[in-house]
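Hello K.,

You asked for the raw outputs rather than the summary table, so here they are, unedited. I folded two proteins back to back in the same session to keep the settings identical. This is the first:
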Amino acid sequence: MVFLTHSFSRVIVLCFEVVMMSPMQNIFGQWLVSLKHYILMCLLLSSPQRLPYSLYCVGLTGLSYFLIGLLLVDTERSYAVVCAQIALELGMLALISYIGLRWKDSLSRFLQTFSALLGINVVITAATIPVYNLFANSSSDGDNLLIYVTLAILIWNLAVLSLIFKRAFEIKAHLSSMISISYFFIYQFIVIWFYP
């Protein structure tokens, strides 16, 4: 009888462990799927509609972006400045997403669109920080090369943003490009104005 009671209690504990672990595993699994699509979007091979519809994924991606952003802290930029710039960027991207999706009467896709915009920033920032560090520590010839690398990264970032806006808002490529370029210039203007 003791054996049966012990076995029965062990089965119940194992069942509860599965129930208690599966949501966390599910959230982490969804985030890994999101990460895969963020990378594919950066390669212009995916779209926001393929992302899981999960607020937890957006939260994990936002946390990742803030943590990666903290790598940008140096003598010229403090933690507060970097966090304020990230918050400004995310606020602007959320506003553009809301306005564009409301205009197209597709607000139900807001979470996926914002997740895509946030996720591509995570991937591009994570990819570019080592590149900048490599060229910043090189010789004087590296300065010219750094300018070309910066221009290539900027074009890559704008192309990916444009693709996400095009697919999320279901608009033509030239209009999505105009939105991306306008966003970039407005963001840079605000950053230079507030953080000279």
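The second followed immediately with the same parameters:
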Amino acid sequence: MQKHLIKLAVVIFIFVGLAGCTGSSTTQSLETPELQLSAEGPLYAGANSATATWEFDLKEVLGKTDTEVSEAKITSVEVVLTAADTLPAMEKMVFEMTSKNTPMTRIGLYEGKITPGQPFALTIAAEQENLASAFADGKITFVGDFDVLDEEYMGNVAFTLKVKFELGTN
């Protein structure tokens, strides 16, 4: 019995020691400013890509000078097709992101018709890679692959984009 109590005390001591070694981390939400996700024509039937780049100073964005992002994931993506005189019929969007130290990562999907002026929210992947390294880079590129249903469209297409992140910071 005494051996079991000693083993239990050692396990509790190790657990308390490990818990004390972990830094205090906080979770906060962060939303990008409204970005322009754009694709330059000519666009052809099938998949076409629109891109937007967000450059930021992490200290300015978080409002803290000595903060490091330890965990990051996307919680929502809202996209709006900007109205123009003529636009091709479009549907579906696969949404990805990348940065200098983050490989291209699939974030979400929208399956439906894309209508000018009407916001649509992407279904976000339940399992995501930790995107914290992208915040160390100070520049994130978002890519939206959408399907054009017409044979071809010679003009440009623009979307507005807002991305919400959940960050774990130390």
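Residues 31 and 164 are 4 Å apart (CA to CA).

Happy to rerun anything if the numbers look odd on your end.

Regards,
P.
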